[in-house]
Amino acid sequence: MTDLVREAQLVEAFATLADTLVNDYDAVGVLQTLVDNCVTFLDATAAGVLIGDSTEKLELIASTSEASSIVELMQLSAHAGPCIECFTTGEVVAVSRIEDGPEKWRPFIDSAKEQGFRSVLAVPMRLRDNRIGALNLLRAGEGSLTERDIRAAQALADVATIGILHERILSKSDAIRNQLQAALNSRIVIEQAKGVLAFLNGSTTDEAFATLRAYARNNRMLLSEVAEGVVQRTLTI
């Protein structure tokens, strides 16, 4: 891929992400677009976004894979790993060799190695002094992302963060907490809908999630709205 083509694709990624920032936008959909773009346009194997609720506990909101092993790995990172360190410090955390991480990360390191990941990058989701979470990029190969890719990842995360916070509510902590809690609640409903579809269709959770997303896109509906319909049995997919 030439630099010119790659730059054009990144511009398109930013445009796609910006297009989601409209009135009544779906926060989970914005974050899903973010992680998908990171794997498509950057040198990442898997990606996930974890955000903090009012107790500053990080929870996985969007991931490029819904496999339970990946979800559990992301949560390990939120407990003791690059994500929680990134969130706490507000700085990028890059580990070019998973096994070189600190001993306190041991459960995360062991799980990552078992799943074939050899390096990781965590990028803060922040706007000024407001930190809401972290973007986690897992890579199958050792080494670090290029400085250009790190800047691109941070910029993509910044666009998504702005969409979630909005300038007009930066000073309204209650509104921010409510919006983050709404995203967490949407995730719970989506998890339930995945389980329902997987059971009904005899499919994997990844396949069930793909079905939910495809239906939402094709029918111009919010992902959370489709999930709610599936759970309440008011919508058949």
From TrEMBL:
Keywords: Kinase, Transcription, Transcription regulation, Transferase
PROSITE patterns cross-referenced by the UniProt entry: ANTAR
Domain of life: Bacteria
ANTAR domain mapped to chain residues: 170-231
A Gene Ontology molecular function term of the record: kinase activity
Protein name (Swiss-Prot/TrEMBL): ANTAR domain-containing protein
Species: Mycetocola zhadangensis
